[in-house]
Fold:
Amino acid sequence: MGYVLDFLPMALATGVGAEVQRPLATVVIGGITTCTLLTLFVLPILYEMIGGHDTKL
Structure:
């Protein structure tokens, strides 16, 4: 999630080339955030639903 902070200056840019940088930075920030949240919350839930508690030996 630390990489999101690296893209904030690009997302908030107003200088020359900002019309290209701003949408790219927004997409990257959204992708990193979504990926992190899916990995932390959705993936473990799906793992438990599909085959989590088989501890029979």
Remarks:
- The chain has one domain: 2-50.
- The helical segments are 2-11, 18-51.
- DSSP finds two helices and no strands in the chain.
- The longest helix spans residues 18-51.
